[in-house]
Amino acid sequence: MAKKSAENGISVCDILKDNTTKVIRKLESQIPQNIQAYSDLYTHYLHLLDDYFGTCYLWQKQYFDRLGLDSKALNAINDYWNTVTDLYCTQIDMITNAQKSNIDTREKMIDMCDQYIHQALDYYGKVFSQALSKINEKK
Predict the structure, then answer these.
(1) From its phi and psi, is residue 39 left (phi > 0), alpha (psi between -120 and 50) or beta?
(2) CA angle 48-42-30, nearest 5°?
(3) CA 35 and chain centroid, separation
(4) 104-120 pLDDT tens trace
């Protein structure tokens, strides 16, 4: 079935390889668009949150400024929230680094798989070549 057609010089292997390559290249071409779309969506979400807190700030400032809170208490609250914010930012960095490490590990696994497949195909090619030569000897 993998024989080339005498009419058009194409084989089943050519058909499978060409179409597989076409689909893979199409998927690859979509990657930048998909990443940009999710990045834009995430940025939009973050700006929404920032706007929300900015709007709340305006009316809360009017309310809390009238309460006359003690400056020492406000400084203590500020120190607390600065510490919480710094911890949160550290956690964001840790998660980002863990995600990068995960991607690096997966990429190394793909490289190892690629090397293994090439070695297996080289071995298969040698065995198949020897088998073909023995078949041809018997003819």
Answers:
(1) alpha
(2) 145
(3) 8
(4) 999 999 999 999 999 99
Q: 2 with 13: CB under 8 angstroms? A: yes
Torsion of CA 56, 49, 97, 84, to 10 degrees: 10
Q: Which stretches of the chain score pLDDT less than 70?
A: 1-8, 139
- This prediction has a pTM of 0.61
SS3 content of the chain, % helix, strand, coil (to 5): 90, 0, 10
Q: What is the pLDDT of residue 5?
A: 52
CA atoms of 60 and 63, how far apart (whole Å): 5
